[in-house]
Amino acid sequence: MWGDTATVGAILGRGCPVDCRDYDGRTALFVAAVNGQADTARQLLAAGADPNARNSFGSCPLLEACLSGHEAIADILLEAGALLNQPEVEEAALLSTVIHSGDHALLRRLLRAHANPAAADYDGRTPLHVAARRGDLASLQVIAAAEDDPAVVALPAVQWDAPDRAGVTADTEASRAGHAAVAAFLRQRIQAARAAAASAPAQMQPAGGAGAAAGFGSGGTAGGVPGGFAMRFGRAPSAVGGPRPAVRTGSGSLQVRLLSGLAPRRPPPLAGAGSSPLSESAGSEEGGGDGGDGSGSGEA
């Protein structure tokens, strides 16, 4: 399109669907988002383009605008109701990868687009754990600034004291790694968050909003679609379908056996129950080829 709004208007005027897709499932709005074409993006949205369209890799125009460095496009999409639409595990991987790369500008853009800083991976580790382990005070300050910025109105609550599956919090991670300044900063944020929670009205919604309680990520979509940063960071899309990982319980534990796309293994036949060769073969295959005892199943 190259930002030629007149040609785009003429094509739309001939009846071309505004959300028609290419071989990768991209709509014209994806192209405008990647290329930073603000006028074209507004034109497409005015013509009814879906701001939350997904391509074949699970990406969306808002994510593409953030990854391409186009804050103006991201703002246009946010005003149109765009969401990142990433499953929690994928969103945790995205933010953690950005922190690991040291790209604080991209981290700011993603947080302004309401990426979830409390998103946890399969081990319950959040982007805070990654920054703490690396001694990356700057990334933590970016997250804190986004939390304190009244303009970032829909940022999910930052869970500064969230434990991972082993019960380790980010401040403990920083202390173990010898990053005293990072640990001190995290403890200050924890104390401030607890003080704010203690003074908040009892009827306030739980941290993360109603979507979090319903099992949705910050994008407002249940897990069942692979994450959208896969091609940009060299990862294949995650498996689809199946239940989402369970949320943290009050004791801080994390149930991770029910990962997205991981179906429960069929139990081996009971001894003496007259199992058939077919059931024995199925049990052997599902058990990783070692007789179906589960040692090769890869379960958490």
TrEMBL record:
Where are ANK repeat segments found?
24-56, 57-89, 123-143
* InterPro entries hit by this protein: Ank_Repeat/CDKN_Inhibitor, Ankyrin_rpt, Ankyrin_rpt-contain_sf
- Residues in coiled coil: none
Q: Where is the composition biased (Low complexity)?
A: 271-284
Name of the protein this chain belongs to = Uncharacterized protein
Q: Where is the composition biased (Gly residues)?
A: 285-300
Q: Name one GO cellular component term.
A: nucleus
Give the record's keywords alphabetically: ANK repeat, Repeat
Asked whether the UniProt record includes Transport among its keywords, one would answer no
Region annotation (Disordered) maps to: 236-300
Mitochondrion as a keyword of this entry, yes or no, is no
